[in-house]
Design a protein that fits this description.
The structure holds 2 protein chains of 2 kinds.
Chain A (H helix, E strand, L loop, with lengths): L2 H23 L20 E8 L4 E7 L1 H9 L10 E11 L7 E13 L7 E6 L4 E3 L4 H10 L7
Antiparallel strand pairs in A: 1-2, 2-3, 3-4, 4-5, 5-6
Chain B lengths: L1 H17 L21 H10 L1 H4 L14 H15 L10 H16 L6 H6 L7 H13 L6 H6 L38 E8 L4 E7 L1 H8 L11 E11 L5 E14 L10 E7 L4 E2 L7 H8 L22 H5 L1
Antiparallel strand pairs in B: 1-2, 2-3, 3-4, 4-5, 5-6
Helix pairs in contact in B: 5-7
The chains are: A alpha+beta, B alpha+beta.
């Protein structure tokens, strides 16, 4: 075997080895991927609350930007101020391999984005599929009503 | 040759003499009745695989009674009973009993229990596949959250976990530190959510928050071991079932912290452990070494630096390569 071939082979083995290591510790599949067409990574915003749909075996976390978080922390209403952005991220669930009795996020199935401007209904966008792409959606009012009806999960 | 025999005889005599030296007598044969509310089939499995150490009914083999083995056996049993003694089953409320069985099942599932050293000498205590299925089906049936079909069949599931109104603590400096001297960390709601967990076993739901050091470690794949300064806040709420069967975060139960400092917390596996319960944030534990309980539970994940949570990949660079390249 020629030296360059040898080097490439060794590099592949090392890289594969590293990858395997990463997979053990991080839930890569449940994360936002480089191919998802989102304007930002919602998982890096603040978690306001989360919900579970046992019938569909899904779980959703409501994220907000700083303006949205500040509102959710201080007020118990749905009138998010101008500039607030909410993301409702929904995963299908999988059994936690480390604890029987728990479900954890498996893969993102959809991301709903609500942006608030002055005195109008929030703008609603739906991202779905693998990778996540913006898709048209009809029943917007109902989903907006649900997302903004959620309150901050209470901590003392 | 003669010398050899002499040595053997001396050793034998010493061994016989040793037999008069025995560990302090512990309760061995008090009969333990079958666990209340638990089917006979499950009782049989637990009796066969767990009761020798985790109850007052211990069936010792002849070799368990020989000095020095008896010292090891006796200390194992004492420790085991401290953690869980099925003879005191009726002292626990139903909720605690269910939690104990889920905990026990997970200890078995992870291979930690029954102890390998025990099953090596008592192979009949090993749980076969069928026993595992029986246990799994049973614990599933006692899970706090019923299956979806059960929820739909129950008209207007009772809302007994009403969210309490405005109960924010105004002065966090008045929150008592835990007995192992860890101070409450109030600002974790501004941290990032590392993951979420739907605990259908005990009807709770959790957001695991991570501080900036933990998030940076995730971004850089430095999560095993976690770096010093990484902190997790595992926050638990009661599951509140809505009329359509969906579940939202109800009453606050507790927040648990794991604070990484390999040197400072060397004696507790490199982590500082603390838990505050309820809306008055009462520190958990009645003695400074209460954290041994935390470690015992986290022991099956020692290869993950004692962390159960599999974090989401929080990375500001891994989204939308299209947009960035434009």
């Amino acid at each position: 075997m020629k030296l360059p071939h040898y080097i490439i082979m060794v590099s592949i083995v090392i890289l594969l080895g590293c990858n395997r290591n990463y997979k053990d510790n991080i839930n890569e599949k449940a994360s936002v991927s480089a191919l998802d067409e989102l304007p930002e990574n919602p998982l890096l915003l603040s978690a306001i609350t989360f919900s579970i749909n046992p019938g569909e075996a899904t779980m959703s976390t409501l994220y907000g930007n700083t303006i949205a978080l500040r509102h959710a922390m201080s007020k118990s209403n749905s009138f998010y101020p101008n500039g607030a952005v909410l993301y409702e991220v929904t995963w299908n669930q999988k059994a936690d391999s480390l604890w029987y009795g728990a479900n954890i996020p498996n893969q993102i199935i959809q991301v709903e984005r609500l942006t608030f401007a002055k005195d109008s209904l929030p703008k609603y966008e739906l991202y779905a599929g693998h990778p996540l792409k913006k898709v048209p959606f009809e029943n917007v009012t109902k989903r907006i009503a649900f997302v903004i009806s959620q309150r901050m999960a209470n901590t003392p | 040759m003669k010398k050899g025999i002499k040595i053997i005889v001396i050793m034998l005599l010493a061994f016989i003499a040793l037999q008069f030296w025995k560990p302090e007598e512990i309760e061995y044969s008090t009969p333990t009745k079958s666990l209340t509310n638990v089917p006979e089939e499950v009782n049989t499995i637990l009796r066969n695989s767990c009761f020798d150490c985790h109850s007052n009914t211990t069936n010792l083999s002849w070799f368990d009674k020989i000095t020095p083995a008896n010292f090891i056996v006796s200390s194992h049993i004492k420790d085991a009973r401290k953690v869980l003694n099925f003879s005191n089953w009726d002292d626990l409320n139903k909720q605690k009993q269910n939690a104990v069985l889920f905990y026990a099942y997970n200890k078995i599932l992870s291979g930690e229990m029954p102890l390998k050293s025990y099953t090596a000498l008592h192979p009949s205590a090993k749980l076969d596949e069928r026993s595992m299925v029986v246990l799994k089906n049973y614990v599933t049936s006692i899970a706090a959250r019923k299956t979806y079909a059960d929820i739909l069949l129950t008209p207007n599931s009772k809302d007994d976990n009403k969210i309490l109104g405005n109960n924010t603590i105004s002065d966090y400096s008045k929150v008592k530190p835990s007995l192992n001297n860890i101070k409450y960390i109030p600002d974790f709601r501004n941290w990032k959510a590392v993951s979420t967990s739907d605990r259908f076993d005990n009807g709770s739901m959790r957001i695991i928050f991570g501080n900036s050091i933990a998030v940076k470690a995730i971004e850089e794949h430095q999560t095993n071991p976690w770096p010093d300064g990484a902190i997790f806040a595992k926050t638990a709420w009661k599951q509140k079932t809505e009329s359509d069967g969906s579940v939202s975060a109800g009453e606050f139960i507790q927040v648990e912290f794991m604070i990484k400092d390999a040197k400072k917390y060397e004696s507790t596996k490199g982590w500082g452990w603390a838990r505050w319960k309820g809306n008055n944030l009462k520190p958990y534990g009645d003695k400074p070494n209460f954290d041994q309980e935390c470690i015992a539970c986290h022991n099956p994940v020692k290869n993950n630096d004692y962390v159960f949570t599999t974090p989401l990949h929080l990375n500001s660079n891994t989204f939308n390569i299209y947009k960035k390249s434009k």
